[in-house]
Amino acid sequence: MQSTIKKILPHILVFVGFIILSLAYFSPVLEGKEILQSDIVQYNAMAEQQRNFKAQTGEETYWTNSAFGGMPTYQLGARYPNNYIKKLDLVLRFLPRPADYLFLYFIGFYILLLCLRVNFKLAAPGALAFGFSTYLVIITGVGHNSKAHAIAYMPLVLSGILLTFQRKYILGFIVTAIAMGLELVANHFQMTYYLMLLVIIIGVVYLIDAYKKKVLPHFFKSVALLLVAVILAVGMNASNILATQEYVKESTRGKSELTINSDGSPKAVETGLSKEKITEYSYGFLETFNLFIPRLLGGGMGENVGEDSAFYAFYLAQGASPAQAKEAAESVPTYWGDQPIVEAPAYVGAGILFLFVFALFLVKGRLKWWLVAGTLVSLLLSYGKNLGFLTDFFIDFVPLYDKFRAVTSIQVILELCIPVLAIFGLVRLFNDYEKDENKIKALKFSVLITAGMAVIFLISRYTGILGFNFEGARDASFKANYGKPFLDAIVTDRKMIFTKDTLRSLLFVLLSGGIIYLFIKKKWSEVKVIIAFAVLIVFDQVGVDRRYVNTENFVASRYVQKPFQTNTADKKIFSDHGNFRVYDISSGEGRATSQKVNAMTSAH
């Protein structure tokens, strides 16, 4: 009994630690505050009619008149009877939102590393590296809840698959069925589709490995069990999946009934989204290095550049008060990449990327190959129209790929793969499989590659050898509307934050390299190294995360529950109980207020 307690106690402590960290990061939830998510504000407005119907009748409605010209509620939170997997999901998400998603990130990735036979001491910091990945935190801030929800269950699905291939057939089958059921309950099929691509990569790697080891019967037995588990998971979510499939046919992702373009020319038959829509958000080649240096391309569309910025000085020079200049400097369009809108960079951590490169020289076998392949495929597909031949191939020939937009989202796969391999870099460092000479060699190459990259960027900042001009796609309009001095101030600040963040990443690389060097030279113990990297990961990634999602994103609960205040126009509209829609332009924001939409009339 005591030995059992001794075995599970570390995991209990880690579990509690993840709860504390999740609540600490989103600490305002402890005061009863809620995060103000822009997407969820709009969602609540669209879903209000169905919620009112449920409150009045106690029944679900699967149609609403409060969105577009009327639409099904399949994607607006419709509930289905006998959905027991959803009840399990609600139990797992016991923390207040969005701390619940952060906790799921942590615990799911922790379980994945345990299934890969990583010691809990290393699995815990690995989970922090995944959970605090900037993109995963950002989506909780803007309200991409279903996306965060689906990503959080990805590691659990992989855990079940890997357990099955480890010949733990029963446990692997159960974990896969339940985890896949939870993945589908999140109702973000784009994320699930990307997970499927990673699973296919794993399958190919394991098939090649099984062929070499002459264990093909085991491979096919595992695949058969996994297919049955997925079928069960689909069955658990059949109501939602079938309803969504019905809805897809009538949406922009289905076949269009239009046969001509606006100019009268014949319209090509499309069974999904247009290529322009799919690739509207495409990652730039240079933007790749945002994974390593957070604000290499300026960060987001509204960065706080502070009072020591050129933009702040520019505003003061125009006669603004210090308070006005400070407010203006809190949201400066510093992003100079090619995407239309970017909230924040997809930063995975300079220390973690250093460990990833370090692992490339030490880790061997099928684990390395599916992680590297998953990372590369994810990165290449995220380029979208910037790597047209590959993207066009997937759109034209890979089933269902044309149903999803914003191809940059596929980077969630590399954001999962990179920290796994990074942690295995430390696993190889601590074991005796490699001689110290090989570890030193790997360390030298890793520092040379990562630190060298940062140094080259710094040199380019002043010499222009890489052609950086710090000019963005929207700069012409800034110059035309506000003048050249306005744009010059922004460009100056872009250069400033470029230099600042490049030096920051260089520092984390050197610290990471120093920690590994001290261990190899027997000056630091394994425990000291783990603690040091855990602190480094949190300090590095949380430091970037809090630039974009912090306590300022939280407001009193009543503002989230009732974001729109009734005005005089609303009261007049509510007095008429007919079927109509009103477009309110009095606020200057084009706010649409509607009660019921007449199928034959678009305005009253």
Describe the structure.
61% of the residues lie in helices and 3% in strands. The chain is built from 24 helices and 6 strands. It starts with a helix and ends in an 8-residue tail after the last strand. The strands form 3 sheets. A two-stranded antiparallel sheet has the order 1-4. Strands 2-3 form a two-stranded antiparallel sheet.
Which tags fit this structure?
604 residues; mainly alpha; two-stranded antiparallel sheet; two-stranded antiparallel ribbon; 6 strands; globular; disordered C terminus
Report, as a whole number of angstroms, the end-to-end distance: 73 Å
Number of DSSP-assigned strands? 6
Q: What integer value in Å does the Rg equal?
A: 26 Å
Which range does the strand content fall in?
Answer: under 5%
Approximate shape: globular
Give the structural class.
mainly alpha
Helix content: 55-70%
How is the largest sheet built, in terms of strand order?
1-4
The total count of helices amounts to 24
Main sheet makeup: 2 strands, antiparallel
Assembly type of the shown chains?
A: single chain
Low-confidence stretches: 589-604
Query: Average pLDDT across residues?
Result: 86
Order of helices and strands: HEHEEHHHHHHHHHHHHHHHHHHHHEHHEE
What is the gist of this entry?
With 604 residues, the chain is mainly α. The protein has helices at residues 2-25, 38-57, 84-92, 99-115, 120-131, 134-142, 145-165, 169-185, 189-213, 216-236, 238-248, 275-278, 310-317, 322-328, 350-362, 366-382, 388-397, 412-430, 436-463, 475-482, 484-520, 526-545, 557-561, 568-574, and strands at 34-35, 63-64, 71-72, 554-555, 580-584, 591-596.
